[in-house]
Amino acid sequence: MSLVPVYQRRASALHAARAGASATFCLSLAFAPILFDNPIVLGALLCAIVAAAVGAGVARDLRRWAVYAAGLALLVVIINPLVTSDGLTVLWRGGSFLGRRWDITLEAVVAGAVAALRVLDVVLAFALMSVTVDPDEMLRALRRISYRSALAAALTTRLVPVLARDASRKSEAARCRPRPPGRTAVARSAVAGSLERAVELAAALEVRGYSRARRPQVARQPWSRHDLRVLASALSIIVLAITARLAGIGDFQAYPTTQVSAGTAELLLGLAFVALAYAPFVGLGGRLGVARA
To answer: Are residues 201 and 249 in the same domain?
Structure first.
């Protein structure tokens, strides 16, 4: 199981769209949970992310990453009642310690659960971005803005695993000595080796003419129907989230007593999020011709 979800090309509208459109779509699903505290809306956004993953054919990859996200969410649920004692419904009185009361309230537990649900939404949205957006294409798009920044980002993504492997080998070699050096010495050696590798790489790039590189000419590609569908869904999610928040839909109050808006407006808003997230994959336009036209 990979710690970070890895991009693999698949036959879906989200993979076929250009990286900018797909990234905007995933970021819209991460942006909407930030605006809302209502658990109904946050649960609907979670269903929207799952629906997008199913449509893109990456539900299995997202399910793997959901294990890590669930652990992080559980940690939020546990910590929030311990750091705040606001609320009127006391579940457990822990007495005084370190100059404060350690009471656990129902409102703090509910607020922690809502925060955990938001964390789950945001983490899975970025996991969806990791498995559906081509990182090389994103770097090529960045190259049009700053060539050296794109080169640095590309080299970083490739060199970090190499440097981690070098540090692991140095640590293993240190343990094989009769008197193993301390961790500080091993870390100092690993950092020195990484700096030496960086200098050698910079010299090699300069010899090959990268120091005289200029911004490349932009090759305009026509917008495909997948680009338009994915970008339209992303912008619709962003506009809908902002409009609903300004209209007061999806209100939530945790303290001093929990108050949740659970009406027809919240239900329709959640259904709209799910429908917009799955819209790029609906119909013949979303299933056929996944190669760019």
So the answer is: no
